[in-house]
Amino acid sequence: MKKYVDLHIHSTHSDGSWTPEMIVERAVKYELCAISLTDHDTASGNSEAMEFSKKLRIDFIPGIEISTKWCQGRMHILGYFIDYSSQAIVNLMKELQESRRQRVYKTCEKLTELGKPIDPAMVFEIAKNSKSVGRPHIANAMVKLGYVPTLQTAFDLYISHNRPAYVPRWAPEPQEAVKTIHSAGGLAVVAHCPVTEGCMKVIDQTPALGIDGIEVFYPPHKPHEIAKLKEFAKIHNLVITGGSDCHGLTRGEPLLGIYKVSCEVYEGLIARHNTISQNK
Ligand code: AMP
Ligand code: ZN
Ligand code: FE
Ligand code: FE
Q1: Which of 76, 87, 202, 233 could form a disulfide with 191 if both were Cys (CB 3.0 to 4.6 A apart)?
Q2: Does residue 131 surpass a pLDDT of 90?
Q3: What is the rounded distance in angstroms from the CA atom of residue 89 to the CA atom of residue 280?
Q4: Confidence check: pLDDT of 203 > 80
Q5: Ligand 1 within 6 A of CB of 268
Q6: Which atom of ligand 1 is nearest the CA belonging to 137?
């Protein structure tokens, strides 16, 4: 029987709806042979996922998906085989958490200037049981203070992108994310590698960034785009990866076990990791 893998999955540790345990259970149910947990900007779900993967006998690659600054937008960089307790990862996560806290202060300042005063302490109190503080907690405070009727209204009128109290989130440079992943013993891969004409420039620059691979198999990628990316990977000696980017029930249909990536992709990634580990 042909075996499949999924190397791009989000859990409740970032914005997915399934816990790492639920993800492992589903992967086993769908008879996948390997998975990786790639939560946004956090590696905190890896120990739970690792524990259940061992219990249920499925291969597991510890991972992360780091958002980085790139031109006007973001480049997402996946880290595979990371030592998630390494100083490099712990420091990056601390830096990201601190920048989220600073963003709460700045957003509250803006809201106060707009005549909707909010004490940041209230936002932190609301967020005290969450893994990280974010805009939904600010929206919640605004509802509690009677400034807006719903969380959605807070976003629509004040804190979503281009609204008056929006504050952009800090993100590292791509080079910094790659360096962190490498320091943690991992491989750095450009997530959902862009294929549109305007973005080809981005791809052209990736080898200079020290990237090890590109994510080629990704639900929206069409066969001709996959072929183009494969060719690019071959020319630049980049490893190719793939996954569903499943967020459980929070973003469209959950594709874990449905979007199929061949086990050969996983084997290629392991081979690249072994080569790099041996050369150290
Ligand atoms: P943050 O990480 O602090 O930027 O917050 C991101 C979260 O805010 C997302 O995961 C969504 O849950 C929520 N969010 C972002 N934009 C909107 C929006 N326009 N409407 C409703 N919720 C949003
Ligand atoms: Zn996400
Ligand atoms: Fe992404
Ligand atoms: Fe993702």
Answers
A1: 76
A2: no
A3: 19
A4: no
A5: no
A6: 3
